[in-house]
Amino acid sequence: MKKYIVGICFSMLFFTSCSDWLNVEPKTTVKEEEVFSRELGFKEALTGAYIKMASTGLYARNLSYGFLDVLGGRYNQGTNQKDYYTFAPDPSSLVESYCESIWSNMYNIIANLNNLLYYCDKNKSVFTTPDYYEIIKGEALGLRAFLHFDLLRMYGPIYKENPGAKRIAYRTEFTKDAQSMQSSNVVVDSIIADLKKAEVLLTNTDPLRFDFPITTSEESNMEGDRFLVYRHKRMNLYAVKAMLARVYLYAGNQELAAKYANEVIDSDFFELLSNANDVLRSKEIIFSVYIDKFDQQVENMMTTTSYIVDNSVFNEIFDVANDGLNDFRVREGVSFENTPSGKRMLKYKQENVWPSLQNTVVLIRLSEMYYILAECAETPEEASNFLNSVREVRGIDPVSCTSQTVQSEIEKEYRKEFYGEGQVFFYYKRLGRPTFVNCPLQNLTESNYMFSWPENEILFGYTN
After folding, report:
1. b/e per residue, 375-389, with b = 16+ CB within 10 A?
2. pTM score, whole prediction
């Protein structure tokens, strides 16, 4: 089979949105041998992966403030809200379309990353810029791990209860051949292995430039290689370490989860912010995606009732009865606005946003590392300290945990901190919660948390 990758347009590699996750010969094609015969081709191919991740079907909407946050109980319940949790064995047509689209688009990116990684070593001699080989390969490995991990968190089991379940395949080759599903613990091992390789490649090569120019003139005057700035929008070294903390916690290895969370915090590249006007909390961003024409998408978000939450649910999500309204994550006119139907999030409103933060959706932020440490803490007092490190800069009083309340206090912080970012559903699933705030069901089981396979995967894949 002759392989092609999608053509180059405006100096960036774009991928088609075809549902087939491996496009053999789209309308505009460039033979892969030509693309990967020069260093620029690798840069464009890697950029293409980020562009595809930033589609509305993935992290620009469905896997951030959209589908995943609907599942996390973030918005008012519609008449078909219960259908959203019917993943198996007979998903609704609406949910099935989400599951098929996410699966195919994620594996499309993985396929192209696998192709890039193959040529990274085959054509290593074309790399002439110092550290480009290590950085590009390290980012690609980190992205491959990142995407597989989110596939596992969506389509996989409640891991702590069923780590041997075979729900996804960890793909490392550019091929259309069907691959048998692997045990989830084997997939986790592969994710960690890729992240560890990425960590080695990016250590002492990643420039770690987390730039946040406030004005357009500051941005235009930034010095250095433009491919290596804005590292918070790339799979940088500390995004890899943060992912290792996230994956080890998921796998139940609290010692290593805490180790990597501490490495991120102690790096001094990031800091918890108390500036209410910096809604995205710039210096807390470890990894994010840039979304082209995000302002148009946000304008739609701001004019529809789909992303509004009832006032009573809002108060419960943000624990207003105990914490009041001092928390700038709930502050009217800063983080939310009032509407006749309830509260609407302002996190992504694009007016007066710094150039370095425009069109940005955060995928990993610093506060998560503190929550991981709280969950791994040996005592309730220690857990309280980690939670209070975040609570203090958010403008609310400290909390004093007991052994019985630690996890519930952590849950409250997940609800507040990651609104519009899709992470709270993963938190509920990891712990196997039978229900949660604003969930339309009271007895959730694993099947309610586990995305269904696309029909074609069942027909032509190895799902047994």
Report:
1. bbbeebeebbbbbbb
2. 0.92
Residue 28 pLDDT > 60, yes or no?
A: no
Instruction: Give the separation between CA 188 and CA 179, rounded to whole angstroms.
Output: 17
CB contact at 8 A, 117 and 141: yes
Quick one: tokens of 37?
A: 């015969």
Q: Is the pLDDT of residue 349 over 60?
A: yes
Quote the percentage of the chain above a pLDDT of 70: 92
Q: Region of 235 please: left (phi>0), alpha (psi -120 to 50) or beta.
A: beta
Question: pLDDT band at 463, cuts 50/70/90?
Answer: low
Closest Cα partner for 188 from 152, 141, 154? 152
CA angle 425, 404, 395 (to 5 degrees): 65
Please, which residues bridge with residue 288 across strands? Answer: 362
Region 248-268 average pLDDT: 98
What percentage of the chain exceeds 90 in pLDDT? Answer: 78
Q: What share of the chain is helix, strand, coil (3-state, %, to 5)?
A: 50, 10, 45
| Distance (Å) of CA 418 to CA 74, 257, 281, 339, 413 | 10, 19, 12, 21, 8
Reply yes or no: is the peptide bond before residue 398 cis, omega within 30 of 0. Answer: no
Picking from 214, 238, 331, 345, the residue whose alpha carbon sits closest to that of residue 288 is: 238
- DSSP letter string, 364-400: EEHHHHHHHHHHH-SSHHHHHHHHHHHHHHHT-----
**Distance, CA of 227 to CA of 230 (rounded, Å):** 8
Q: Is the pLDDT of residue 456 over 90?
A: no
Decide: 417 and 281 in contact? Cβ < 8 Å.
no
Rounded-to-integer distance, Cα 343 and Cα 71, Å = 18
Alpha carbon 114 to chain centroid distance?
A: 20
Is residue 176 very low, low, confident or very high in pLDDT (cuts 50, 70, 90)? confident
- Does residue 287 sit in helix, strand or coil? strand
